[in-house]
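hey team, just a heads up i'm posting the complex here instead of the shared drive bc the drive is being weird again. everything in one block, sequence lines first with there labels, then the predicted structure for the whole assembly after. its three chains so it's a bit long, scroll down
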Amino acid sequence: MYQFINTILIGITSGAIYSLMAIALVLVWRSARVVNFAQAGQALLSTYIGYEFIQKFHSFWLALFLSMVIGAAVAALIDATFMRTLFRRAGHGPIAGVAPIIATLGLLGLIRSVLGLIVGGKDVRIQPPVSNVGYTISGHTLAFSPLKLLIVGSVLILMLVLTVIFQRTNVGLALRASAYSPEIARLAGVRVDGIRTLGWALAGAAGAAAGMLQTPDGTGALSPDSLEFSLLLVFGFIAAVIGGLESLVGAVVGGLILGLVLAFVLTYISGSLVFITAFGVLIIVLLVKPSGLIGSRRGRRA
Amino acid sequence: MRKFIQSYFGRLSLFILLGFLLFLASNRVDELRVYQGATVAMYVVAIASLILLTGYSGQVSLGHGALLAVGGYAAALARIHFSAPIWLCFVIAVIAAALAGAVLGTAAARLSGPYLAGSTLALAVGLPSIANQFHIFGGEQGLLFDVGAPPTSLGADFTQYKWYFWIAASIALIAIWWLQNILRSRFGRTWRAVRSNEVAAELAGIHVGKSKTLAFTVSSGLAGLAGALLAMTIGTVSPSAFPLTLSFALLTGAVLSGVTTLSGVMIGALTLVATPEIADAISNRFASSENVATNLPGLLVSALLILVVLLVPNGPVEQLRALRTRKRAKTPLTR
Amino acid sequence: MTLVVSDLSVDHGAIRAIDNISFQVEQGQMAAVIGANGAGKTTLLRALSGLTRATMGSATWQGHELLYSKPEKLVRFGVSHVSEGKSVISELTVAENLLLGALWRKNGDEADATREKVLETFPRLAERISQPADTLSGGERTMLAIGRALMSKPQLLLLDEPSLGLAPLIVEQIFQSIRDLTTHMGLTVILVEQNAMSALKIADIGIVLNLGRIAAMSSAQQLIFDPQVRAAYLGY
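-- predicted structure starts here --
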């Protein structure tokens, strides 16, 4: 019974982190129609910078805030320089669909290697800002602690804030219009390039939050070779695709579903089957709903 | 002269000539280079499979490493459990991977862009880890794949690595020859038509789903072949032989080669093999830490990939061709 | 303030879509640009609004050079372009499409006033104000596209084949609305049309484009009665 509850709790917590990464990916997708594979790399980089801030200011919260700011700035820089150049050069050739995928993969590899060079070998750890000791109910320890509550709460708040921005503000309208039809948005006077960069910046901040919150939850160690990093990368992406890439709510739903399913497989079946299960869930969802769970009915293609 | 090179017999002669030259060269180079040659041949087949899938058929796969794994494991299993002769092992590898590709391809044909990329990414991470679950796959340590010693008829000083090279190079030449013919046939044209505009292709009578699935199947077969070659050169198959980075490396190799054309496939393969070497040379030169040694190859490859995508997005071969055509057409045509 | 186009040329790759054309449109005038398919009409509008980069020449409006700029910049000079093919964003609602045109405007009250005017002119839009744009009929989408352009407070309005795919009755309504709005708001309009007759009937001057060059240019009335134009474009 408690194993069941704990499995659910584990699923929700890990799902929350995947959701955060998925939110970042959906943000860039909606702003620029690009899947940013470098997202996890950016998240890791921002987290490392957060670590340095913790060393300097001894405050997790300040470091979290600053790392999100830096994450946003780095992402904006990537869009303004790298992606714009990419579209100018490769945006219209036969490689147009593939180019952003490859470019962001290259960026991911670059960030990973550079971080490896900087961090490698050193013991970089981020301690949890609140207790990670599980709550207890009648003597049983739950797989839920103040830290995990923080994680889940942050994801929900972020999703709410972003949804409000997108759906109810002028900036959000500009963001959506620029993603659906950059040409018409331009004709309406929207500074599409700047808006797109804003989308990237928001995603960068979300990714930084994901990294900063996830790292203290495991061993606390920060490394480009860590399992956590690969999970962020792969599962965040899978969660986004399950949710449909078109909505922030979808990202959260996708993340939660993935987190829950994987938690159950991990607890009740076997750890080795976790990855192939992720694949299975993804394929089943896509076969039933090719644009993801909350994808648009009109099936907006890539 | 150009006409001859483009013709069937012209190209066949070129391939035979190339094979001959390679075999001559293998006698004059040292063991390490011969071994690397085998690896290059393996990458050539793997990258070619991606060029077919992505460059011609327009489907992005981030998980071809998984299909290599299928081929590699199939070959190993055939050898261990049935003591199949080497050539049969490779055939089995192709068939097994092609079957997997056919199944995956039917799903893949219905997915576009990022959804397909996501699925293949999940596959790349998921498939090899199955090996840890079932005993028959040998778990973390994996299975042995031993192609055996070179036949005595080749002479006493015919080394093991030369044998690897001969097998890999012959297979690569045959595979590329076959693929080139397929790409020049109506299959290749159909794939290209679907890639440029699915709706138009459908209206022209092309069955888009079937075409894409076929591309996926053929590509997977080739990938399986490459996987078996990889198993041969390493000697074992295990989950760690097919990490996510392999899939990324293959895609990188395809881009470096120029993903829309087969002509540059050697460039990507050579780069993938040469880069760790160059990285080693650099780190040795500057007597740096092990940390640098591990991360430098990745850094170089990623930087190279970014530069290529920005500067020469269609690949070096296409870029050269474009330069030549642009030189010929200087004045704009007035109507 | 006149729109002055001088020696404008636009290349599409190796093909010269517009070849060295020059013309003027006085402020408050409506110019109908007619011609066969592929004559360069759409390219002309796209060059003026910044969607396509001109190769040579100049186009000045109110002292600003229009060519070689980004569309979003030109909107702030009063240039509004209703591009070919409905020019609305299907995923957004009618209200959002209209609001989109006014986003750059700083004066909220003025924008509201414009919205009122647009909804007055096109009451069908008011009825469907919260519906996604892809549920609208062809005629309603055209109205929405024009409405969106008007929300940007234009002084120079570029319309690309608004009659495309619409029933003749709707075309008449829309053209009448365009004429009324133009007069009422003092707009300068360039109306590109396949439907040469309807366009010339409401326009002040007419320009005939053929293979990227100006084949004829004079008052719209004169063109209607010009025998060559009648034979080629007006069907009688």
